[in-house]
Amino acid sequence: MDEVSLPPDLEHYAASAVVEGRYRDRSAVVAAGVALLRERDAARASFLASVLAAEEEADRKGCVSGDEMLTRVRARLAEKHSATE
């Protein structure tokens, strides 16, 4: 594996994590960071896929925007208010 250079603040954090016994060495700290990046990327990809699937479903089934729904609710409230006067 290639040597990894870290900015001073991250180098200090990694060294502290090793000294405190949370990781066996600097490589383990870097590996944990890369594993977290992989998890974050997978979560982002999953979220994006779910958003795209929801958009496709909305296009198939028909969907109104939040603004349109708010307009409809306000209109119904206004109708009910007018009917009670």
In short:
With 85 residues, the chain is mainly alpha-helical. Helix content is 78%, strand content 0%.
Can you describe this structure?
By secondary structure, this protein is mostly helical. It has one domain. 78% of the residues lie in helices and 0% in strands. It is built from 3 helices and no strands. The chain is elongated, with a radius of gyration of 26 Å.
Helix content: over 70%
The topology string of helices and strands comes to HHH
> What is the global morphology?
elongated
Query: Which stretches are poorly predicted, pLDDT < 50 over at least 5 residues?
Result: none
End-to-end Cα distance, whole Å, is 78 Å
Descriptive tags:
85 residues, mainly alpha
What's the layout of helices and strands?
Layout: H1 8-19, H2 26-61, H3 66-83
